[in-house]
Specification:
Residues 1-12 have a biased composition (Basic residues). The chain has 356 residues and is an alpha/beta fold. Helices cover 41% and strands 10% of the residues.
Length: 356
């Protein structure tokens, strides 16, 4: 398939080369036994020395363009066969272009306009992560914005499969899933950015990240809709393949909650036990996790396998990357059920496809 980037060719009048920046920036050199780096990539002010054979193996973009018919004959310099530099568009997008083909400097600073929208260090780190994936080197992801930047770059350079194949190790222990606090309100990057991360996970076809994001989105759906109606949150921009999956999981969550509630009400009527003071319930059934959690704790002494089964089912925690130590009904998940699930066969991509 042709690279996605092929349709994003930059018009010379609308783009400008980013200058070399302050002198003395040490290159980041990727080593491969028996090979000498033959490609220099200048990502903004950061040079990378890499190997064309590795780029071609894992990126359809470089496979097509490194030796394209319009490439100049001979090496790009005395030290490197290929040299690429950063080109920034007026709209804030950036990419790598062969140094001998790149447009001349613009009289105004496109880089400054770009930095107003996206932080250059984040882009450099995301690009380094992609190269690390290609070289099977360990890398870390510090936050959700880095994850999204990495996905966007991998999509542009047609390197989604190699990023997907190496991502799990980077997600384990990532600060994206640790507890933070803002104005005394606990949160994680993951739950704040779940819809965007779900879309990224779908592009990457990464089941672990997809499931984690999926659980978060379903658990917040009523809140997302309410805040959207109050103009406090932008629309939930998810593709047509994701919306029915989320809707079906939300319906199953409602069914699970109603079943547990019905079993509980039957036991209250027929069994001689009393409940202590309870939390107020919400008119949104999917926001009553704290109430169910308190009831389960009060009924822990009651020997009723059927009731226990349904209470455990609705309070099941399907998060596997979360590092907060909390479950449904607790702290930042006080109003959130985390039991949504999706089977492998329902993942919105073809598992047999190896290049996308």
């Amino acid at each position: 398939m042709p690279p996605k980037a092929a349709s994003k060719k930059r018009r010379r009048a609308e783009s400008s080369v980013v200058d070399a920046g302050p002198p003395g920036r040490d290159p980041i050199i990727f080593v491969s036994p028996g090979l000498q780096p033959d490609v220099r990539l200048r990502v903004f002010h950061q040079p990378f020395h890499v190997h064309s054979i590795v780029l071609k193996l894992h990126s359809n973009y470089f496979r097509k363009f490194l030796d394209s018919p319009d490439k100049s004959d001979g090496p790009a310099s005395a030290s490197f066969q290929y040299e690429y530099t950063t080109v920034v568009d007026e709209d804030g997008d950036w990419g790598l272009e062969a140094a001998d083909k790149a447009a001349p400097h613009s009289p105004y600073s496109l880089e400054e306009a770009f930095q107003a929208q996206i932080q250059v260090p984040d882009q450099i780190r995301a690009f380094k992560n992609i190269l690390s994936a290609m070289y099977n080197r360990p890398y870390t992801i510090d936050d959700s914005y880095e994850m999204l930047a990495m996905t966007k770059l991998a999509d542009f350079y047609c390197a989604l499969p190699i990023v997907s194949a190496t991502l799990t190790g980077a997600l384990l222990g990532s600060p994206m899933f640790t507890l933070k606090e803002m104005a005394k309100h606990p949160y994680t990057d993951m739950e704040m950015m779940a819809p965007s991360l779900l879309d990224a996970a779908c592009k990457l076809r990464h089941k672990v990240l997809f499931r984690e994001s999926f659980v978060h989105v379903v658990s917040q759906l009523s809140k997302i809709r309410r805040e959207r109606n109050l103009n406090r949150r932008p629309p939930l921009l998810l593709g047509p393949t994701l919306k029915p999956l989320i809707k079906n999981a939300y319906i199953k969550l409602l069914e699970r909650i109603m079943t547990a509630n019905q079993v509980l009400n039957n036991r209250i009527v027929t069994c001689p036990f009393r409940l202590g003071p309870m939390h107020e319930t919400s008119t949104e059934p999917t926001e009553n996790a704290e109430w169910f959690y308190a009831i389960r704790n009060q009924l822990s002494y009651v020997s009723d396998p059927d009731l226990k089964y349904h209470m455990d089912a609705v309070l099941k925690n399907n998060l596997v990357l979360d590092q907060t130590g909390f479950g449904p009904g607790e702290s930042l998940y006080a109003k959130r059920f985390l039991c949504a699930q999706i089977a492998d066969k329902d993942m919105p991509w073809d598992p047999a496809e190896t290049d996308w």
